[in-house]
Amino acid sequence: MREIIAALQVSVDGFIEGPGGAIDWIEAWEDPFEVMPEVDMLALGGRMYPGYEEYWSAVHGDPNGILPFTGRTPTPAEVAYADFAAQTPHVVLSSTLTQARWPHTRIVSSLDAIRQLKEQPGRSIHAVGGASFVSSPINHALVDELRLVVIPIALGQGKALFQALHQRQQLHHLEVKRLAGDVVRLVYRLRR
Known about the structure:
The protein is an alpha/beta fold. Helices cover 22% and strands 29% of the residues. The protein has an eight-stranded mixed β-sheet, covered by helices on one side. It has a two-stranded antiparallel sheet with strand order 2-8.
């Protein structure tokens, strides 16, 4: 059975977006989680997917261009992730989206479809986000591992990472690693 690895960047006070959806505090969208070698499918929520598709399509289409949302050129690691994402199947959980422009993308309307994908052979599935989407499979005992990259900033308010959890979750610490710029990666196993 495949595992699901949820991986997100978060402020030190637990937010994935600042007030008004601000994400300018995240310097780059790449793979600080080191999931690319371990996964062969990416899963997202329907609210996050359109912006994700726009951003990574822009990086993949013009690796030297100015990017939407950030107004800067992509880093080499973002170009590598864009190439990976363009070739990797995506599953989007949504009750409102009916189609995606990106190839290799399938829209599903229930967590049962994600559960069925998890039961198929293959490498792990990366649950990319957003916050509601990641909480949903955690609530249904589908997430096996949680990787958080903690950015050293306190936002004070915004969209909390775990605002949609239904119950307490026990975690088992697997790893802590200091990355560049006082950023820390935490890896936990979800206890069942």
